[in-house]
Design brief:
Blueprint lengths: L6 E7 L6 H9 L6 E7 L6 H7 L6 E4 L5 H11 L4 E4 L5 E2 L3 H11 L5 E10 L7 E4 L6 H7 L7 E4 H7 L10 H13 L4 E13 L4 H4 L1 H18 L4 H6 L19 H18 L3 H14 L6 H12 L8
Parallel strand pairs: 1-2, 1-4, 2-3, 6-9
Antiparallel strand pairs: 4-8, 5-9, 6-7, 6-8
Helix pairs in contact: 5-11, 11-12
């Protein structure tokens, strides 16, 4: 039997004492024989450190000290990690029982695999909304997959060699560092060596103090900044790039490699998803460019909606704006 690979799990933490014990136990109770578990706490002032100390003999490393946020904490843990497979589990999330055995077996049986994507369950801690499962979406090519931007970080386990080449997560991002890492992974390594798993691997908790619940606008701004950068780097027409301009640019690009990203395919992918959206938001020039791109690539189906949009964009004399 092929030996199970060493899996490094990082838990970035700050003042999540009410949840972190469940996180820790969900990792340790996997009983995975080749586990490296690292907790990087940002100097919590609640009972987090007390809980970590209860389990410190089972941890490979832990520290509690001020840091520059979640992304910095992940990279601090990553710098100490020595495993062959890598993921992080936030201190308010937890693993599904048996998840690491599923992951370890998959990597052991597929030595060329660079990333395993399993299901994650998203649930509302206050039970306001029903829980649901989803998995990172892989489309026909890298460009379409990027534009769909559907990921489940808890269920994504990377080959450590790939993460080392990418030099960890981007510390200029505090909300979508997982998405940007995913984009950089695809543009450098492509999607050919990704395997999808039907196993449930992790659980993502929504609660009143979580980033996902309370900072939706910050998420949107960071995503827009990444797309603005991609449009500029791949020399997409300026009206398309302008759609993604934000008033608070703070994104600093980090170790991109565009080997698997083509300009024409990226434009078509954006057009397939957002042509109507551009028009509705009064980005008429962007909508026109997107429409023409789809026409040239044969991606437009004959329908009343598309014919109506053509009339409004190219035939009607009404001024729909020029953004």
């Amino acid at each position: 039997m092929t030996a199970l690979p060493k899996i490094s799990i990082i838990t970035p933490s700050y003042n999540q004492g009410q949840y972190i014990e469940q996180t820790i136990l969900s990792v340790l109770e996997q009983n995975y024989p080749n586990l490296e578990y690292i907790i990087i706490d940002g100097g919590s002032t609640d009972n987090t450190v007390e809980i970590i100390k209860k389990y410190e003999k089972h941890l490979s490393y832990w520290v509690s000290e001020p840091d520059r946020g979640q992304s910095h904490a992940i990279n601090k843990g990553f710098a100490r990690a020595t495993g062959e497979v890598f993921n992080w589990i936030n201190s308010d999330d937890f693993l599904e029982p048996g998840a690491l055995h599923e992951v370890g077996k998959a990597f052991a049986q597929n030595p060329g695999m660079q990333l395993l994507c399993g299901y994650g369950r998203i649930f509302d801690h206050e039970a306001i909304e029903p829980s649901y499962k989803h998995r990172t979406k892989i489309c026909l090519n890298t460009e379409l997959t990027i534009v769909q931007e559907e990921i489940n970080q808890q269920g994504m386990f990377y080959r450590m060699d790939c993460i080392r080449k990418l030099k960890g997560v981007n510390e200029s991002l505090q909300y979508v560092m997982d998405l940007e890492l995913w984009f950089r992974f695809m543009t450098q390594f492509g999607i050919a060596n990704i395997r999808l798993s039907d196993a449930l691997l992790g659980h993502f908790r929504l609660h009143s103090s979580s980033k996902t619940t309370g900072f939706e606008e910050k998420f949107r701004q960071e995503v827009a900044q990444i797309f603005h950068y991609l449009c500029q780097q791949k020399h997409l027409p300026e009206p398309i790039s302008k759609v993604y301009e934000t008033s608070e640019p703070n994104y600093t690009p980090h170790d991109w490699n565009f080997r698997h990203l083509q300009s024409k395919k990226l434009l078509n992918a954006i057009a397939q998803r957002y042509t109507f959206d551009f028009y509705k938001r009064n980005y008429t020039k962007a909508a026109q460019i997107a429409y023409i791109s789809l026409l040239k690539s044969g991606k437009i189906a004959i329908s009343k909606a598309w014919l109506s949009l053509f009339w409004r964009l190219f035939v009607s004399k009404k001024d729909y704006g020029t953004k």
